[in-house]
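Hypothesis: this fold can be encoded by more than one sequence.
Test: take the structure tokens below, design a sequence, compare later.
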């Protein structure tokens, strides 16, 4: 066993004295772009494994994981149990939800995937049902800063800097992009006029774990006020998986019906949010692959570009955005 794993076990046994002397295999969990570290502690006794999360303060949202867990659990969402939390050492011991995420069903038949996506959407509906007016100022202070025009503009700038300029080599300040920039301005102004609710912020297939036929949430430390359709776009236009236009429409209608919402109203905002989300994702893939030493993220760019092209064709007033990425991968 590596020395750092021994140190983790010593610290864990201080938290759980009943495990003193109990043999344990430490498994490193490698997944995602997070600066957090995850370990599966497999105890060699009749005890379920647990997950140890070790985080840093490099990201503002990392310390929000435990408060977000408690908030989601309070409204009945499927989230892991927090066994212990040491704020000084930046460690959290969690229930192990298993190894199977929603993405792993990508190659399965639609008949198999459909109920899993429906279960995932039912989980989303739980926190999307918490509107901004239902939260106190203290509640809001515990969340990450909500989506406002400044955050939407930041996401758009992230896309322009890292994908359009960095990845495609296009100088987006040229006059030929003026109409596209005006479309960006109109997009964020349309979004900020809409009523906000609790959103996951990174609601994609790798952040949904499947146990039996139930969906469980992870990586929700970015919980904040925003638009439900942003989460829906993150899930249904997830570049990590393949969904057809018909399958997306089926799931979007299921969600609208489940919440008693007008499908056409949800669909209209969905495409606006999908454009916003996919631009953010393209900025992230380009930045991670070009600047942060994670070149494997570049493989997701073509799917995200294809999805964004579809969204611009389907959504109202989005066509000019094509100027930024047409012909680019």
């Amino acid at each position: 066993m590596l020395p750092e794993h021994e140190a983790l076990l010593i610290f864990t046994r201080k938290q759980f004295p009943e495990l003193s002397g109990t043999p344990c295999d430490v498994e490193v969990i490698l997944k995602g772009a997070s600066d957090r570290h995850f370990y599966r502690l497999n105890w060699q006794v009749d005890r379920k494994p647990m997950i140890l999360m070790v985080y840093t303060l490099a990201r503002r949202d990392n310390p929000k994981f435990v408060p977000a867990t408690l908030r989601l659990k309070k409204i009945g969402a499927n989230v892991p149990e927090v066994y212990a939390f040491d704020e000084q050492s930046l460690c959290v011991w969690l229930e192990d939800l298993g190894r199977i995420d929603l993405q792993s069903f990508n190659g399965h038949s639609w008949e198999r995937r459909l109920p899993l996506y429906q279960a995932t959407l039912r989980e989303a509906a739980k926190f999307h049902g918490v509107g901004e007016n239902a939260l106190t100022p203290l509640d809001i202070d515990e969340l990450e800063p909500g989506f406002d025009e400044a955050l939407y503009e930041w996401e758009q700038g992230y896309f322009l800097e890292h994908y359009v300029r960095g990845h495609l080599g296009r100088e987006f300040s040229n006059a030929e992009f003026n109409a596209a920039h005006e479309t960006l301005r109109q997009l964020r102004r349309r979004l900020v006029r809409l009523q906000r609710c609790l959103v996951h912020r990174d609601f994609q297939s790798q952040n949904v774990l499947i146990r039996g036929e139930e969906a469980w949430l992870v990586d929700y430390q970015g919980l904040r006020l925003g638009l439900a359709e942003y989460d829906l776009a993150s899930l249904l236009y997830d570049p990590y998986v393949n969904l057809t236009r018909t399958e997306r429409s089926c799931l979007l209608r299921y969600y609208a019906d489940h919440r008693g919402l007008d499908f056409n109203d949800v669909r209209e905002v969905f495409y606006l949010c999908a454009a916003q989300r996919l631009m953010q994702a393209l900025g992230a893939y380009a930045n991670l692959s070009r600047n942060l030493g994670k070149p494997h993220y570049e493989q997701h760019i073509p799917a995200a570009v294809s999805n964004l092209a579809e969204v611009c064709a389907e959504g109202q007033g989005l066509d000019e955005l094509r100027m930024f990425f047409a012909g680019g991968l």
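The longest helix spans residues 263-291. The chain has a mean pLDDT of 94.
Hypothesis status: open.
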